[in-house]
Amino acid sequence: MDTVVQWNIRGFRSNFKELKLLLNRSQSAVVALQECGLGEGQVPPRGYTLLLPRGGSPGGEAALLIRNGTRFSEIDLKTGLHAAAATISLEKTLTVCSLYLPPNSPVSKLSLAELFEQLPKPFLVLGDFNAHSPAWGDSRRDGRGKMLEEFIAENDFIILNSGEQTFVHSAYHSTSAIDLAVASPSIAAECSWAAHSDLCGSDHLPIFLTLSSNFSSNFLRPLPESCLHTLLKLFNNIWTTGDIPPSWREASVVPIPKPGKDPSDPSNYRLIALMSCLCKTLERMVNDRLVHVLESRNLLSNVQFGCRKDHSTLDHLVRLETFTKKAFARKKQVLAVFFDLEKAYDTTWRANLLKLYRTLVRSKLDYGSVIYGSAKNHVLRALDTIHHQGLRIALGAFRTSPIKSLYAEAGEPSLEHRLPPTLGGAQHYCDISLTKQNKENTSEVAYQKEFFRIKEKFSNHYAVFTDGSKLEEKVAAAAYFPEHPDRSKATRLRDGASVFSAELEGIALALTEIKKLTKYHQNFVIYSDSLSALQAIQSKNFKVIDIRCLYNLIRKFPPYVHISFVLIPAHVGIWGNENVDKLAKAALNRTSTSGKLIYYSDLKPKINTYIKSVWQRDWDAEGANKLHEVLPNLGEDLHRRGEGAGRKLETAICRLRVGHTWLTQSYL
């Protein structure tokens, strides 16, 4: 493993001895120093080469120390920032840049972008940024911190800091985190970050970055055929001899606290063992072959569905449903036993996590997007960071995963694609202003005058009248087209449907026919005498299935079409309303129905009426009951029995009406 040190030394000469001690202890390959105060000709510690800024970069405040014998290539940076960089060959080749940003000098995204673009990837930018933000462990956020947050998020760089404080104020003894390690995504996973416990004479803690030299699964994937055969020979030798490499017997155990559990109890942690990827590859090979033997020889029970390829626990639920239906049909019983193993691994899976993310997080990002969606791109990118983090958590993806791969794996588009409004369809408008007039105190002539005023307002609109009608159990709906009566439609609904459903069905008939007229007209007005139907359309009450169907129809219209829904009074001599009413009533006598199903909301009043009638019949049989004399009809006077009198008086009234009180029943 290679170690890279980052340190704001606060004076190269004044802390030279401390620097030599630090190098002797750490044997670091590379050291990134800030606030050095150096000039040309400075002698470095023995065994190291000193690199100072070259070219356009001001010198003295940022420097690199590279251990002798390490191959490197100095980078001539064209920047006005205090920075020094080199491409260094360790166990892998990477670029290391030392950067110092003075606290009072202006720094822009543009200047940072110009610097980062000159650094070959993969790279580490190590330095004192003098930027405060909770994103890397600071207690406050300043302007530079906010700017740096946006810059990191926009470019998908990774901050390696663990959240520890790196700076101690010499006067106030306050702490902050202003020394940052920024990595390109491809190398971030191989770096571990830790702050030293000793200031070593400065007011900044030295920081150690360890570069892992272990093999990763990415190393195995592109291996050529010859290397795979060699690896197979190694696995076969281990399998036959039982001689397992010592490093394969070790694992880094990471305790993950279980959600909602007491973190002070060790049993409330789930342990994750991180092992050698070569060892895990061998384990997978053994497991695949064992599973093949079990499956090919039918050694597993045919009712075992969990953890088997091409089997799903959902299959068991389907079988249970089938057993239950058969038992009911044969008038038998089914006994099902469900048990869960305590402390078993949480059964949270990706689909549920994505569902939670979309419900709890993405919904908040979407809220108000019609308003803020036109903001500048760099403002909207702040939301992308939240979006990406949510997808990474739900998928279990590594933090350096490419963003577009996250979108594809989650089946979730970017916010750039989601935020712009895409809902098409006709523009629509509801006018229910006539509800302000009391029908009992308004004459038919007044209503007719008001209708003519409304008609004049929509004189350039193609008019349609709709209505619903009900007679006992028969229900029908109609749409009347005054300009083209032959286009008028009427249908009978299934018996038992509500008038509300009939009114919406009439509007649906009108919209279906209007769709055919959009080649000739752009503006339409639908007159309805149903306040409840228009209120449901206006409020977009999508809990009502018919409203969802209406909006689906509206969305199919070209965007240049405008549809207005206007409330008119019924049976006041308005010619179009009277005609559509006749059409609907005539449809009541049809023998065939539209085939439209009756929804539960329509059946509910009927069910309640039936239940109440059965209940009333049973209640009427209670002739000797004292309360029956006072309350012969169920449901009457229900809310006026001591209303507002308080709990004590209400209880007394109830006991008196029922006829059972302490005085009459105390002997029991």
Could you describe the 3D structure shown?
The strands form five sheets. A six-stranded mixed beta sheet has the order 3-4-2-1-14-13, with no helix packed on it. Strands 5-6-7-8-12-9 form a six-stranded mixed beta sheet. A six-stranded mixed beta sheet has the order 17-22-21-18-19-20, with helices on both faces. It folds into five domains: 2-211, Endonuclease/exonuclease/phosphatase (Deoxyribonuclease I, Chain A); 278-338, no CATH class; 357-418, no CATH class; 427-603, Ribonuclease H-like superfamily/Ribonuclease H (Nucleotidyltransferase, domain 5); 622-665, no CATH class. It is elongated, with a radius of gyration of 39 Å. α9 packs antiparallel against α11, α11 packs across α12 (403-410) and α15 (499-514) packs parallel to α17. A hairpin with a 6-residue loop joins β5 (71-75) and β6 (82-89). It has 22 helices and 22 strands. It has 668 residues and is α+β, with helices and mostly antiparallel strands. The longest helix has 21 residues, at 600-620. It holds the Pfam family RVT_1. Residues 458-589 form the RNase H type-1 domain. Residues 237-499 form the Reverse transcriptase domain. This is LINE-1 retrotransposable element orf2 protein. One of its GO terms (molecular function) is RNA-DNA hybrid ribonuclease activity.
